[in-house]
Amino acid sequence: MGVCGAAFAAALTAPAQANGPADHGPNGGRPSHWExxxxxxxxxxxxxxxxxxNTAWLAGxxxxxxxxxxxxxxxxxxSPPGAAELEFRDVEAFDGRRAVVLAIGxxxxxxxxxxxxxxxxWSESFRNTDAKAxxxxxxxxxxxxxxxxxxxxxGKFRILSTSDGGRSWKVLPSAGMPAAQEGEAGFAASGQCLxxxxxxxxxxxxxxxxxxxxxxxxxxxxxxxxGDSPIPAGDPARGVxxxxxxxxxxxxxxxGDYRADQAxxxxxxxxxxxxxxxxxxxxPPAAYRSGVTWLPHSRTSALAxxxxxxxxxxxxxxxxRTLDTGSYDTVDCTQAQACWAxxxxxxxxxxxx
Length: 353
Hints:
It is a single chain. Mean pLDDT is 93; it is low at 15-29. Strands 6, 7, 8, 9, 10, 11, 12 and 13 form an eight-stranded antiparallel β-sheet that branches. Strands 1-28-27-26 form a four-stranded antiparallel β-sheet, with no helix packed on it. It has one helix and 28 strands. It has one helix at residues 3-13, and strands spanning 33-37, 47-50, 56-59, 65-68, 76-77, 87-93, 99-106, 111-115, 123-127, 134-140, 146-153, 156-162, 170-171, 194-197, 201-205, 212-217, 225-229, 238-245, 251-257, 268-271, 279-280, 291-294, 302-306, 309-313, 321-324, 330-333, 339-342, 348-352. The protein is mostly beta strands.
């Protein structure tokens, strides 16, 4: 962990206080905490892309896309025209002007749209025409290369690929994809069921079947291997919901059962071999978690969020403790030490230290 990463983690890991997740950071001041920002809407934002401390993008229900360039003090509604019937569940932003959003759903409800002018105009670069496909998540390796994933079609997860920043897409061959289990699918809960690290490695999280799994590709989605996860599945509402890899080896997975009246034991797991094997967290989050991210420049600290709160690990995912009880669906941090979270009823917050 670098000096900046150590200071950032220390601000969170100090003793908890009643009015915030952690006590005073190394430089004093008020405790670290999520500071809510007024989004001006009641949309549910499961799509979030943190660009910097000042700039972030949100994508959510009712075709809503918002962008801030002043740290959340104000939000510009940059929703694509005519998109009110779409459900945006993922957004990948390259900066304050360029972003790609994914709409989910059966058949033509699954679409990809792209903007190059901060959301002033949008172009639709992909519309699914296969009634059996349902796209869930999207990730980018860099500004040009990215993937999107669909629930299984003809017995295999389907992968969509772009090499021009989302301007055009093509379905990759399925020969290198293992067969899906009966009932297996991804969860479009946080935009984190498909994640990448580095120039070629990508992971896909599943649930719904007898066993939850994490699939890994080291060649940008052409060939995949599958590893079983200890996070319970066996029901359409249970499995791995989100992944975060800080490099091509070290990963964290979170999930559980998204139904509020169901317990979620073993809701987190860790991998040290690129997702081939997973170990259950010794002290997992107390409830279902839908989003997870590593803290900037840290090798050991990460945040997980869900409808009942935010949890922190400082030992690489082995043990977790609750920092906050606010409801969030997804969380994202930038290398510039800015963390954002978003969720239901227009909720969006930035981590303040």
